[in-house]
Design a protein that fits this description.
Protein name: NYN domain-containing protein
CATH architecture: 3-Layer(aba) Sandwich
Distance between the termini: 12 Å
Organism: Methylorubrum rhodinum
Strand content: 15-25%
Number of strands: 11
Number of helices: 6
Order of helices and strands: EHHEHEEEEEEHEHEHE
CATH class: Alpha Beta
Number of domains: 1
């Protein structure tokens, strides 16, 4: 994955989309957008330092009235026995420093270990056999659940096509005053294959 552009190198400004919500929830497919593979806590710090301020900047450009962004980070946080994965431990130790104001926007970060619809049940085994399990399903479930809440703006941060059906479904639950937003890394392809469907469903897409 290419490094994220930092706010100091903003490039062209994103057009605001007319959403006036003061609160935003951003669902982050963490491994999909992190700049460096995490082999140490130093890598975690590098990724969070680039990711969180940059996402705040991008979201504020699209939703100018936003005052608070709740970031839910999805990944392989739980082993088969329910213990935290090493990546989870590193993130928990460093994430707190980013729970603060970035300019005029307050960021709140948490690891998604449970579904929003059932917060008292932490899912076990989201990391096993060297890879992630159930993570895409968790993101899709939370995306559709939150699509019913038009008191918030809702952002998916990923370029994974596995989320296309969930994004289309979620967009059908939202009004034109609060469209679903998809932020994704730049692709080598000229245009993602399903962008036409996103346009039909009023999904707003922008590049990181």
């Amino acid at each position: 994955m290419r490094p994220l552009t930092t706010p100091e190198h903003k490039g062209a400004a994103l057009p605001a989309i007319g959403v006036t919500m003061k609160r935003t929830t951003a669902l982050i497919d963490y491994d999909n957008i992190m700049s460096v593979k995490e082999r140490s806590i130093t890598d975690v710090i590098t990724n969070l330092s680039e990711m969180i301020p940059h996402l705040v900047f991008k979201i504020q450009a699209l939703v100018p009235d936003v005052e608070e962004v709740n970031f839910r980070l999805y990944g392989g946080w739980s082993l088969r026995d329910g213990q935290s994965s090493q990546q989870c431990v590193w993130l928990l130790s460093e994430m707190g420093r980013f729970n603060r104001r970035h300019g005029s926007v307050r960021a709140k970060c948490r690891l998604a270990r449970e579904l929003i619809a059932q917060t008292d049940l932490s899912l076990v085994g989201t990391y096993r056999d060297g890879g992630q399990k159930m993570v895409d399903g968790m993101i899709t479930a939370d995306l559709i659940h939150l699509s019913n809440d038009e008191e918030i703006s809702l952002v998916l941060v990923s370029d994974d096509d596995d989320f296309v059906p969930g994004v289309i479904t979620g967009s059908c639950l939202r009004s034109s005053k609060s469209p679903l937003i998809v932020l994704r890394p730049k692709r080598k392809k000229a245009e993602p294959l399903n962008d036409h469907h996103y346009k039909v469903c009023r999904v707003v897409t922008a590049e990181l």
